Amino acid sequence: MSHVRSRFDKPADELVIKYTTSLPFDWRLYREDIRGSIAHARMLAKQGIIDPEDALAIIKGLVEIELEITDGKFEFKPEMEDIHMAVEARLKAKIGEAAGRLHTARSRNDQVATDLRLYLKDVLTWTIESAKSLQEAFVGLAEKHIGVALPGYTHLQPAQPILLAHHYLAYFEMFQRDRERFTDCLERTDVLPLGSGALAGVAYDIDRGFVARELGFRSISRNSLDAVSDRDFVVEFMAAASLAMMHLSRLSEELVIWSGAEFGFIEIDDAYATGSSIMPQKKNPDVAELCRGKTGRVYGHLMALLTMLKGLPLAYNRDLQEDKEAVFDTADTLLLSLKVVTGMMQTIKVKPDRMLKSVDRSFLLATDLADYLVKRGEVFRNAHGIVGRLVSYCVKEGKTFPELTLDEYRLFSPLFCEDVFELTAGTSIDSKDNPGGTARRRVEEAIAAARTLLEES
Ligand code: ARG
């Protein structure tokens, strides 16, 4: 019978053990759990709460257990409720009675909250690094393709010419905001709950500041009830992860569209594409599709956690154990997605000719023609109407703007002169010369600013 069941007359039902155990998934917290326990044991000895010899035996035993787990030699017994119980039971088997002193002035409630925060701090640090690598890939692409023009879209209908670099830098901005959100979340995750006990605090003269320093926490929690029941930091992480996945998913959707034969703007590197089991000619963008698909999983975890939390009275409730699989899967999915998409972007092949062809074909200069008339005295709304009729004429005649004669232009407005033929995608792009615009000069400035931002943070 488990060592926490002395007040019971019989062991737990087998199904109950299966239903309640978190060991099959929370074993992943073993490093954090052992780190936390070592810091706790040190503090207990320093404060004279346990003997230094016992503390030494505990620490030595814990270090060995970590190695056993890392080397795959640790036996995870299914009757153990969770990783915390599994480690403590093993410690008891190794060092005997002294193991029982480790849990002095501690509850699994403040222990698990501490483990989870340690885990998430690591995840957040890796996430911030990975998001930065992806941003670097976008800046690299923007520099490499600075001269390439692309149709910009609204409603997925060709709208106005832009620089491809400008498009890439839009993603740089999204992942900059993501990085800021994760950094912000890290600040609130970086708080030590240990010392809160089960809910009320503990009846020993502990030194929480010491434990915080040992474990690298910036501060200690201020309220024991809140500390053991708070999972806001996990929700924040999942919300920030959902936004980052949404950005990855939008990018993925564009890669799927752009790599399709009808667009042909890019080619995904062979290493990041897959084939078909029946159609030999196929080269499919499965990585992008899976990234788009996995985004739904991450949203689901966020909803699951928010829903799990909404009815919980203070303080700890076992429902909280349900946070584990959600947070692990969110972290795994997000980190892997960031890495694989970064690799895919770094190896992407751009086809500037295909982009330019679309720019020339799609009446993208219609707004520029309206602006042309406005600059010669026409009212914008009238200019809009004139160019609209001009486009309708072209569609009926099967012509593009460059194929029109000046006489044809003048059928629609006497303000059109010979210099209308000087309008190109390039002049259109460079005319968007405001902060945040797609003019080459502005985009070059934006690249330099992005580089500085990456160097500074
Ligand atoms: N496995 C539990 C969890 O993940 C640990 C805390 C258990 N505490 C308790 N009082 N049953 O939340």
UniProtKB/TrEMBL annotation:
Output the PROSITE patterns linked to this UniProt entry: FUMARATE_LYASES
Instruction: Write out the pathway annotation from the protein's UniProt entry.
Output: Amino-acid biosynthesis; L-arginine biosynthesis; L-arginine from L-ornithine and carbamoyl phosphate: step 3/3
Supply the enzyme class, top level.
lyase
Alphabetized NCBIfam families for the sequence: argH
**Cross-referenced HAMAP family:** Arg_succ_lyase
Where is it localised?
Cytoplasm
- Domain Argininosuccinate lyase C-terminal: residue ranges: 363-423
One cellular component (GO) term of this entry: cytosol
Q: Which domain of life is it from?
A: Bacteria
Enzyme Commission number(s) from the entry: 4.3.2.1
Q: Which UniProt keywords apply?
A: Amino-acid biosynthesis, Arginine biosynthesis, Cytoplasm, Lyase
Q: Which catalysed reactions does the entry list for this protein?
A: 2-(N(omega)-L-arginino)succinate = fumarate + L-arginine
Domain annotation Fumarate lyase N-terminal: ranges: 7-300
Species in which this protein is naturally found: Dehalogenimonas alkenigignens
Q: Which InterPro entries match?
A: Arg_succ_lyase_C, Argininosuccinate_lyase, Fumarase/histidase_N, Fumarate_lyase_CS, Fumarate_lyase_fam, Fumarate_lyase_N, L-Aspartase-like
Q: What is its main location?
A: cytoplasm
Q: What is this protein called?
A: Argininosuccinate lyase
The Swiss-Prot or TrEMBL record describes its family as follows: Belongs to the lyase 1 family. Argininosuccinate lyase subfamily.
Q: Mind telling me which SUPFAM superfamilies this protein's record contains?
A: L-aspartase-like
Q: Entry's Pfam families? A: ASL_C2 (PF14698), Lyase_1 (PF00206)
State any GO BP term from the record. L-arginine biosynthetic process via ornithine
One Gene Ontology term of the molecular function aspect: argininosuccinate lyase activity
